[in-house]
């Protein structure tokens, strides 16, 4: 008599939360990236893209967060793991509200390029670099041969005054002559005396280091 082959049974597995969890992680990561680098992305012409990206990401984030809230109904049968996606969205929202993401990105930009920008300022003061754009007497186009230290094509703005040279390294350049950037003023100089602020004081003025300011018009 043939020996009976024991039948194996597959253990029933509970419902999986991997897809909602992966979606929460991806959406939150992209949302934080956009929020952190929004200022840099505002540079022309990518500013037009940003006008679409920010509202789209807001809709996706809110929609996915609401969807994750419905998963709470499955905690009783599936376990507390179904609360994880909503917790990720809640943590992301808290970071967006309370963490100074753009300030962190600006500080990183300043620290990363500080020495290179100082060397460029020294070359300008020594007369090695001079305005080279025919249509703008205050513009130096560094081009691709120099390190990329300024947004909008690696152009820097200079203002020769009796007290010294003001040098602006752009972090963004938008429509209607809107710009942000790090302004290096001569020793004892006043950033408000930079020629771009003759008609209107800067809308943002933050000191980052000796003779260095973050400005926006």
What is the compact description of this entry?
With 217 residues, the protein is of the alpha+beta class. It has seven helices and six strands; from the N terminus they run ααααααβαβββββ.
Output the number of helix runs. 7
Oligomer: single chain
Instruction: Give the radius of gyration.
Output: 26 Å
Helix content: 40-55%
Q: Which series of helices and strands comes N to C?
A: HHHHHHEHEEEEE
Report how far apart the termini are. Answer: 94 Å
Using DSSP, what is the number of strands? 6
Q: Care to describe what's here?
A:
The chain is of the alpha+beta class and 217 residues long. It is built from seven helices and six strands; from the N terminus they run ααααααβαβββββ. A hairpin with a 2-residue loop joins strand 2 (155-161) and strand 3. Helix 1 (18-36) runs parallel beside helix 5. The protein starts with 17 loop residues before the first helix and ends with a strand.
